[in-house]
Write a structure and sequence with these properties.
Two copies of one chain form a homodimer. Helices cover 35% and strands 12% of the residues of chain A. The first copy, chain A, has 239 residues and is α/β, with parallel strands linked by helices. In chain A, helix 1 crosses helix 6 and helix 6 packs across helix 7. At the A-B interface, strand 4, helix 3, helix 4 and helix 5 of A face strand 4, helix 3, helix 4 and helix 5 of B.
Chain lengths: 239, 239
């Protein structure tokens, strides 16, 4: 079982205590910037899901490095491995290749994991309810993920309605999507503005040592940095 | 890890093949009757969640006995143990006692597991999307669970909206709640009418050999059988 729950010291900086937010942090660029946005107003409880993804070990290393840098007061590395064992996605199914040298095709991409965000959000909301947190942050964005049905604003609106109906009356948790209308360049700019440690993030769908630079996630990331006009601080294969 | 995914032979009876439904089957009375209702129109894919509940082994024995009797074509025993480790419920937290000799108090009962149905439904819908199933059945009912926010019809309506928005456009899955407006006596009557094997079910929150007859779940079950005027076919402690 790949799972850890940890309670840490906590902020304790000057000023009144901040409310708590659960942040869904894969360790990738988008979730890192979403967490940096959450940090402006909230103490962080960081949530990572293990669902049998190919690059789990590298993702977890990025997640833990970010948690350490930010001084998160709680972390949860949840074992949702059953999702990978259902099959149906190239991210978790060793029999389906990760497409290389091409951006994701229109429509539902092969990396789509059925109902993934709904499962992760449900787990994060349950944790938020136990912790008394007020928000759940997710780095979803619609422009870079046009084929993913569970990255659209109307999907998150429906999820907020579900939380309202499905939790204790006194529970006030809302899903916050600070990146929802940004493209990759906009996300990188926001991250730089917030001082997010982008050099600690990991986006590659395929490799765990140096990023491949060829999967759809690497291509999107490299295009974003190129549009902003700054070098990507992580290491790429053969560079 | 307590997890199993199995593909079985399948119905193959006379007549055209039936569509497939995922049924959330805890092994309790309600979910057994919901499955019996699903069987009228669907082939069964049976879903059980391990979330660290006290009586997991006994529940699983009931689940497997029902799966065997009905000839389910798929079974999934999903490991959602992280939910139990979050704490906050007497069903999963050894430090919180299961209340005895009293029905559940008004308001949110101590057996409430935060956002549980949302997590289970998300997992079941993901599986249904991979299998191409058309429905997800759940034995929730509002009369016997007035304190559970995630057992109300408006909650399930919101969930159907979420599925509509959060899955592939061609995916047509709806949550079906055949027991939603029945009380325990009504559920028992429907189960008998459908020939559901109620003698194989398990409801006790506390014991695994003979039912305690004293936890809120046993009390509700016994009251239901008394109202119908038939004996409960399972064994109780000291009887």
């Amino acid at each position: 079982m790949n799972e850890r729950i940890e309670k840490r010291g906590g902020g304790g900086g000057p000023g009144p205590p901040k409310p708590l937010a659960v942040v869904m942090l894969s360790g990738g660029l988008d979730s890192c910037v979403a967490a940096a946005a959450a940090r402006r107003e909230f103490e962080l409880a960081l949530f990572h899901a293990n669902y049998g993804q190919r690059t789990l070990a590298r993702e977890l290393a990025a997640f833990r490095a970010l948690a350490a840098v930010w001084g998160a007061i709680r972390i949860l590395e949840a074992d949702l491995g059953f999702l990978g064992r259902l099959g149906g996605s190239s991210l978790t199914d060793a029999g389906m290749p990760v497409p290389l040298d091409e951006e994701e095709p229109p429509g539902i991409p092969p990396t789509y994991v059925p109902f993934r965000n709904s499962i992760f959000l449900a787990a994060a909301v349950a944790w938020a309810e136990v912790l008394g947190a007020q928000a759940v942050f997710i780095g979803a964005n619609v422009l870079d993920n046009p084929g993913y049905p569970d990255c659209r604003p109307e999907y998150f609106a429906a999820y907020n309605r579900l939380i309202d109906l499905g939790t204790r009356p006194e529970t006030e948790i809302t899903i916050q999507t600070p990146l929802i209308h940004l493209d990759k360049a906009g996300i990188i700019r926001l991250g730089m503005e917030l001082g997010a440690p982008l050099e600690l993030t990991w986006s590659c769908y395929q490799n765990e040592d140096a990023a491949c630079g060829r999967c759809s996630s690497c291509l999107l990331r490299l295009k974003g940095f190129a549009a902003v006009g700054v070098p990507d601080p992580i290491r790429y294969q053969g560079k």
